[in-house]
């Protein structure tokens, strides 16, 4: 286990591989490790001058811009807590987050899609424009614009760098050296597949070690170049992608906003060896009309995670994208995030059908969600996990923390089973399991089966209330471009191959799914849509 802070780790990597590329963007800025550390130190000094203290909450509201990664390491160097803000947030969510988290400083870009971030912030804290303090947000100190423009009541990024010139190395390093790896360094509000957003507190120790092990499983070294299309504001971005790369001296090649073509272009131009993504990203890349034109032969490994990884998609990624050594990770923000991961040398079936075994120093049990009793092998139940990677707690929510982490065990609400060799299969969320006339139906199983249908691009199965059976199976189908299919045809395909009680009673054809920003289909919204369509 590594007992170092993130600041120390960056320094070590910069010493070891000064001329290795650290952060590069296709047609954008490029930093070698020595340059990356230099800019990080400048910004860290600027933060000190601004008045940022150890433990202060510094929020970043931006897509994958270079300043995001710089801020991630600069805040860690002075012991501030980086608060990652979901880029899809609008006014109400920003307001909730700034208030609940006691944010002191907010770094932000100007806009994302149709949301003007500057206007939104000015609406939430109108006093900002006059440079006054807000009574509603007593903790709030300063907003800083990531860019050159000047906005009312805000500093900009260059100001921070300039302010840093007044601080010397000694001051920075006396702060950095006073930090403890068990301090909280990162806080994220969990994605919205369920319930109310809660601020997950993670320490250096939590995320450094998690990133380290995940990288080891990939065989990541300073020779690797990692394409990062996943958002930084989620653990997949800021732990598995950026921190992991820095620990192993690899090169980060981020995509600012996910776009299948940009991913393919970046992999080709930067000769990336590693590619990450949630399953839908891989699906879009594989289905891109120009897919064949790109040279992806540099790819070696990568990670698919964040949502169920369909076997058929895994196989295609291994063959058509040359990612023979791809691995699957399973986990959640509260676990830093990774709990289990497949190994590159696991048997083929285990690598495509399971999420692997628990990482070293992480324990997993499958228990009855009601009684909490441990269940026998190959029996579906709730996955609970314990280890160095479990969060410190939810910020200012002791009751929610106690409910989720009991005696050190994190209760994931994920339905899973473990085989005799210790490999874990995720069956869905505990709340997503369908009980049809007393028979348990696992959406995942039906989804996996329907993915085999040649016309189907994406699929999501949910339970909907039914007067006779309690619940019935409904499938939301997205067909491949240009394909047509009837409900009857899909039903027949199922009837010929799977037990009748599992065959979807309803098929709904959709063009897209309600998704969370981190790439998960929001099944509770699909259930609502189905209920509405069926008038239940
Ligand atoms: P988040 O906290 O946003 O990372 O969401 C975590 C949730 O994503 C988990 O509780 C799982 O339901 C789901 N998840 C993550 N990775 C996988 C995976 N490999 N297979 C299935 N579900 C996953």
Description:
The protein has 536 residues and is of the alpha/beta class. Among the domains are: 6-200, Rossmann fold, CATH 3.40.50; 433-534, ANL, C-terminal domain (GMP Synthetase, Chain A, domain 3, 2-Layer Sandwich). It has 17 helices and 29 strands. The longest helix has 18 residues, at 33-50. Bound molecules: adenosine monophosphate. Adenosine monophosphate is lined by residues 190-191, 305-309, 328, 330, 332-333, 337, 355, 412, 414, 426, 429, 518, 520.
Rg over C-alpha atoms, rounded to the nearest angstrom: 23 Å
CATH homology-level superfamily of one domain: ANL, N-terminal domain
Low-confidence stretches: none
Query: Separation of termini?
Result: 53 Å
Per CATH, the architecture of one domain is 3-Layer(aba) Sandwich
Bound molecules: adenosine monophosphate
* Number of helical regions: 17
Strand order of the largest sheet: 9-8-5-3-4-10-11-21
SSE layout and pairing:
Blueprint: H1 6-16, E1 21-24, E2 30-32, H2 33-50, E3 57-61, H3 66-77, E4 81-84, H4 91-100, E5 105-108, E6 111-112, E7 115-116, H5 117-124, E8 142-145, E9 154-156, H6 157-164, H7 169-177, E10 184-189, E11 199-203, H8 204-218, E12 225-228, H9 235-248, E13 251-254, H10 260-270, E14 274-277, H11 279-286, E15 301-304, H12 311-320, E16 327-331, E17 338-341, H13 348-353, E18 357-358, E19 362-367, E20 381-387, E21 393-394, H14 398-404, E22 405-406, E23 409-418, E24 424-429, E25 434-436, E26 439-441, H15 443-450, E27 456-466, E28 470-479, H16 487-495, E29 506-509, H17 523-534
Parallel strand pairs: 3-4, 3-5, 4-10, 5-8, 8-9, 12-13, 12-14, 14-15, 15-16, 28-29
Antiparallel strand pairs: 1-2, 6-7, 10-11, 11-21, 16-17, 17-18, 19-20, 20-23, 22-23, 23-24, 25-26, 27-28
The structure holds adenosine monophosphate.
């Amino acid at each position: 286990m590594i007992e170092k802070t993130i600041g120390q780790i960056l320094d070590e990597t910069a010493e070891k591989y000064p001329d290795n590329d650290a952060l590069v963007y296709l047609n954008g800025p490029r930093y070698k490790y020595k340059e990356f550390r230099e800019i990080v130190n400048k910004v860290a000094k600027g933060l000190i001058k601004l008045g940022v203290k150890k433990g202060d909450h510094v929020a970043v509201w931006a897509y994958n811009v270079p300043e995001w990664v710089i801020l991630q390491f600069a805040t860690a160097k002075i012991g501030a807590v980086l608060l990652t803000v979901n880029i899809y947030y609008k006014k109400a969510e920003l307001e909730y987050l700034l208030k609940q988290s006691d944010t002191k400083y907010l770094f932000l870009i100007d806009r994302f899609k149709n949301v003007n971030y500057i206007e939104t912030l000015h609406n939430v804290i109108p006093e900002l424009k006059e440079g006054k303090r807000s009574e509603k947000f007593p903790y709030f100190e300063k907003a800083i614009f990531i860019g050159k423009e000047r906005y009312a009541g805000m500093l900009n990024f260059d100001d921070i760098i300039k302010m840093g010139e007044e601080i010397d190395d000694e001051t920075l390093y006396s702060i950095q050296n006073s930090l403890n790896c068990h301090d909280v360094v990162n806080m994220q509000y969990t994605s919205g597949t369920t319930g109310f957003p809660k601020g997950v507190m993670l320490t250096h120790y939590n995320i450094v070690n998690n990133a380290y092990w995940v990288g080891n499983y990939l065989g990541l070294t300073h020779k690797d170049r990692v394409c990062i299309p996943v958002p930084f504001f989620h653990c997949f971005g800021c732990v598995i992608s950026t921190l992991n790369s820095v620990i192993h001296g690899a090169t980060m090649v981020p995509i600012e906003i996910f776009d299948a073509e940009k991913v393919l272009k970046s992999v080709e131009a930067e000769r990336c060896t590693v590619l990450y993504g949630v399953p839908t990203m891989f699906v879009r890349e594989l289905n891109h009309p120009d897919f064949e034109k790109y040279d992806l032969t540099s790819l070696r490994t990568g990670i698919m995670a964040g949502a169920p990884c369909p076997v058929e998609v895994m196989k295609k990624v291994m063959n058509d994208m040359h990612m023979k050594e791809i691995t699957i990770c399973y986990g959640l923000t509260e676990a830093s995030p990774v709990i289990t991961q497949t190994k590159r040398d696991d048997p083929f079936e285990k690598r495509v059908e399971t999420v692997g075994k628990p990482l070293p120093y992480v324990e997993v049990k499958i228990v009855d969600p009601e009684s909490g009793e441990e269940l026998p092998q190959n029996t579906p139940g709730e996955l609970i996990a314990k280890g160095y990677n479990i969060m410190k707690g939810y910020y200012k929510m002791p009751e929610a923390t106690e409910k989720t982490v009991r005696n050190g065990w994190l209760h994931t609400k994920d339905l899973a089973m473990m085989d005799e060799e210790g490999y874990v299969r995720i069956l869905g969320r505990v709340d997503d399991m369908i009980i049809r006339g007393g028979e348990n139906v696992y959406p995942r199983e039906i989804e996996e089966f329907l993915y085999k249908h040649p016309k189907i691009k994406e699929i999501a199965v949910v339970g909907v209330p039914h007067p006779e059976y309690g619940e019935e199976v409904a499938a939301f189908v997205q067909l491949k471009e240009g394909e047509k299919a009837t409900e009857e045809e899909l039903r027949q395909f199922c009837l010929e191959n799977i037990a009748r009680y599992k065959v979807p009673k309803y098929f709904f054809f959709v063009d897209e799914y309600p998704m969370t920003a981190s790439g998960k289909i929001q099944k509770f919204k699909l259930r609502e849509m189905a209920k509405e369509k069926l008038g239940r």
